[in-house]
Amino acid sequence: MINGNLNWITNFIWGIADDVLRDLYVRGKYRDVILPMTVIRRLDAILEPTKKAILEMKDMLDRAGVIQQDQALRQASGQAFYNTSKFTLRALKSRANQQQLKADFEAYLDGFSPNVQEILDNFEFRNQIPRLSKADALGTLIEKFLSPDINLSPEPVLDAEGNVKHPGLDNHAMGTIFEELIRRFNEENNEEAGEHWTPRDAVKLMAKLVFLPIADQVESGTYLLYDGACGTGGMLTVADETLRQLAEERGKKVSTHLYGQEINAETYAICKADLLLKGDGSQADNIKGGPEYSTLSNDAFPSMNFDFMLSNPPYGKSWKTDLERLGGKSSIRDPRFIIEHGGEPEYSLITRTSDGQLLFLVNLLSKMKHDSKLGSRIAEVHNGSSLFTGDAGKGESNIRRWIIENDWLEAIVALPLNMFYNTGIATYIWVLTNRKPEHRKGKVQLIDATQWYTPLRKNLGKKNCELSEEDIDRICDVFLRFEENEQSKILPNAAFGYWKVTVERPLRLKGIDPERAYSAKEIRELRETAERDENAPPVIRKIHKPGTEPNSLHGLFEATIAGERRVVEYEPDSKLRDTEQIPVLDTGGIDGFIEREVLPYAPDAWYDPASVKIGYEISFTRYFYKPKPMRTLEEIRADILTLRKETEGRLDEILGVRKQ
Predict the structure, then answer these.
(1) By residue range, what is the domain housing residue 596?
(2) How far is the CA of 75 from the CAs of 54, 57, 69, in angstroms?
(3) pTM for the full predicted model
């Protein structure tokens, strides 16, 4: 089957929408009918040769009183699906009465196997039937899909002389047609397409970033692929194709099992249908979805681990409902999100409820294989907030810390702007693995690919550019070379870490006794009654026993109490409190930074080591920002003179002054 013929079939199906649905639906709703009808017609064509065998098997099972009939009926059909109604679409074509056609068509749909029923239910296709029937369009729709001008059957159509009129459509070709229809409908609805569908160029890049580094290490065998926000399944299918191609080029034979989870009912139905149309019945059974299957609150694969994982989670989407289902922030015990790390037995990865995108990455990381040669490799798309939001000790920062301190982050690639259909914001591909090669250990590669793109001739929503094959190869080449250059920076893991340090200064009040300690109650009263003065003595809150070593940086000061040298602690002044963000790689550490940057300006400052928090953030701007050179004085002067010349006489015109 050549691509031209596939394109012709796709155009024919696309044209059915305009021919039959134009006056019934707005253009953006054509997909509600055309996609499920394409699935139904393909399944109908596949099942036609075994229709009699299925009905005979059904009758025999019913007479024998067998309740669990699914496997036997699948065997009878020779497929992963079946239809036990007495109808086929071709038989329904002859119905002249709309009411009878409607009743028989619904009975025909009811005869499909449970896996197909789930697809139809999530498409909500039965809701369209009354509308189509009332407009006398249902029969026309069926007739169009049965047109002799196209063949959606795997068997060829012959002419009267026995020559092939239309070649058979194998599963791969049918999948290609269905994916092309999905792409076109997504582009028609570009304002929401990016929510459930990632552009194919971005997916191809992600797949290569996952597989190219280990292509020569892939052995013949079975591999598990997973997407926790699978949408219409494009990432899984492209990843599957990429892995198989790379393995075949190296003389290896691999089989794959695809797993995915998707909360949106329609896109889940599309994903499941796409796999079913490609002949992947078992793969379709591995896709879980619908409103009850939110990945964050209802993990469909809690005990499974996967070899390769790719995902494009929703950005900036609230996960408050999921958090409530998990028991709320204080009661959540999901082992994916409450872990042990850095000596903390309950290290929280819980992010703010307004954006749960990093939790999807945590979900993937919880499913890594730790006992296989290749471990697991992950690619996930995020917007910029995942790089830096969240203060030290908060969920987002904790996630970055957990990832980087475990040395799982291999690289982050900054993509061109306007790559996606519904957003023009900056996006980044995170590449992770728990089997870093030796030369990458302890390091992270940042790649600035924002200028490597090909402009589109026509915008698709906000998408105005794409990654050509050359662009993808260029990015992958920089990734694989692992060398420093203008677009590639290689940094030690610690470069992204920092200490958040609270710097205190003593509370100084007029009229206090500088040689006694005040109780908490007394200090509260003094705050309300005494006057602050930077020249007043500091308020002592604790006098340590003799022998305590002083350490003014940590708040243990030497003072004279009743003529003796003692170590004291001062009450901090909340109005003078400040915080410092100190890089982990700072040569002097926290103490050196305080001595160098704080004490020269506040000699009485200190910090409490117990209050120090560790944070991690990733700043592309810090490493790739290129300041624009300042203009010369001559250029500025020339601009001023030009403006003066252009505006000469304008004021007189405005004021109505005539030249003499």
Answers:
(1) 499-620
(2) 9, 10, 10
(3) 0.84
| Of 658 and 525, more confident | 525
| Stretch (H or E) spanning 414 | strand 409-414
Please give the DSSP secondary-structure letter assigned to residue 451: T
Per-residue DSSP letter, 215: G
Query: Is residue 185, in this structure, part of any structural domain at all?
Result: no
> 561-565, 603-607, 646-650: which has the minimum mean pLDDT?
646-650
Same-domain status, 485 and 510: no
d(CA 632, CA 54): 84
State how many domains the chain has. Answer: 3
**407 in the same domain as 277:** yes
**Residue 182: φ, ψ to 5°:** -60, -45
pLDDT of 521: 95
Question: How many CB atoms within 10 Å of residue 190?
Answer: 18
In a domain, 576, yes or no: yes
Q: Which of 461, 456, 381 is nearest to 206 (CA)?
A: 381
Q: What is the band of 193 on the pLDDT scale with cuts at 50, 70, 90?
A: very low
Q: Based on the domain organization, do 289 and 374 belong to the same domain?
A: yes
* Together in a domain, 558 and 569: yes
pLDDT digits (tens, 9 = 90+) for 419-433: 876 667 899 999 999
> Residues 484, 482, 398, CA angle at the centre, nearest 5°?
90
547 and 464, same structural domain?
no
Among 47, 112, 461, 105, smallest CA distance to 272 is for 112
